[in-house]
TrEMBL record:
Pfam families: Glutaredoxin. Coiled coil: none annotated. Residues 2-58 form the Glutaredoxin domain. CDD domains: NrdH. This is Glutaredoxin domain-containing protein. PROSITE patterns: GLUTAREDOXIN_2 (PS51354). SUPFAM superfamilies: Thioredoxin-like. It comes from Sporosarcina globispora.
Length: 73
């Protein structure tokens, strides 16, 4: 599981805390520091962080994050 974040991003901080509190492991990728990852996501139509990638699917909001955590629990 990968979580794409930005350095200054309140929603990213909330998402990280949410996954941490639910003991879900993820690889955090900072889009401010990883231009190739940023370009790839933009080419797929994503314009805002956080974005979670898991098993080829992308999740972009807290409702989707909750559904993912529920599936993994």
């Amino acid at each position: 599981m990968k979580m794409y974040t930005k350095t200054v991003c309140p929603k990213c901080m909330v998402a990280k805390s949410f996954f941490d509190n639910n003991d879900i492991l993820y690889e955090a990728i900072n889009l401010d520091q990883n231009e190739s990852a940023r370009d790839e996501l933009v080419s797929k139509g994503f314009m805002a962080a956080p974005i979670v990638e898991f098993e080829g699917k992308y999740y972009t909001n807290m409702n989707e994050f909750q559904e993912l955590v529920d599936q993994l629990s």
